[in-house]
Write a structure and sequence with these properties.
By secondary structure, the chain is α+β, with helices and mostly antiparallel strands. It has a single domain, classed as BH3618-like (Roll). 12% of the residues lie in helices and 29% in strands. It is built from two helices and eleven strands. Strands 3, 4, 5, 6, 7, 8, 9, 10 and 11 form a nine-stranded antiparallel β-sheet that branches. A two-stranded antiparallel ribbon has the order 1-2. Strand 7 and strand 8 form a beta hairpin. It is globular, with a radius of gyration of 16 Å.
């Protein structure tokens, strides 16, 4: 068991439970290993904490909680980097930002692909400008309609 200081206090972790970014997150390419912090509150958000730099942590979420139609599939090169088997599932996560005015946005333009089997992750940039890096959360009513539309109700 190893320990690191962080904004969450001292964190204990085992190396075989780390989430590894073989190329580092965008803008943090030298940071490779992250501890997934347990979610102490109900809700769709959770933190990952860098092992190499205690000052770096990201809030992540499953974007389909807010945008049910959002889908990203890894290409063959990304599957190789993630060490994904042909039939293995890949999760899509996005970084959550909170502005000083407390506006919450999601980075839909650069999602994180995560392979639970290999505990590897890649942040990729989506081409074509379809998504924004600071996408505001939909209004509550709009989110409910989107969820209902996605579930076929």
């Amino acid at each position: 068991m190893k320990k690191i200081p962080s904004r969450f206090g001292e964190i204990e972790y085992q190396e075989d439970n780390l989430l590894r970014f073989p190329e580092g997150p965008i803008g943090f390419e030298s940071l490779r290993d992250f501890v997934v912090m347990p979610n102490e509150k109900e809700g769709p958000l959770f933190w990952i904490q860098s092992v190499e730099d205690p000052g770096v942590a990201f809030i992540l979420t499953d974007p389909t909680s807010f945008f049910p139609a959002y889908r990203v599939a890894p290409d063959m090169n990304e599957r190789r980097k993630l060490q994904l088997a042909d039939d293995e599932v890949c999760f899509t996560l996005v970084v959550v930002s909170v502005s000083p005015e407390r506006q919450v946005t999601l980075n839909l333009a650069a999602p994180i692909l995560m392979a639970p089997g290999s505990r590897r992750a890649l942040q990729v940039i989506l081409e074509g400008g379809r998504y924004q890096s600071r996408t505001p959360l939909p209004a509550v009513e709009e989110a409910h309609r989107a969820v209902e539309a996605g579930s076929g109700k």
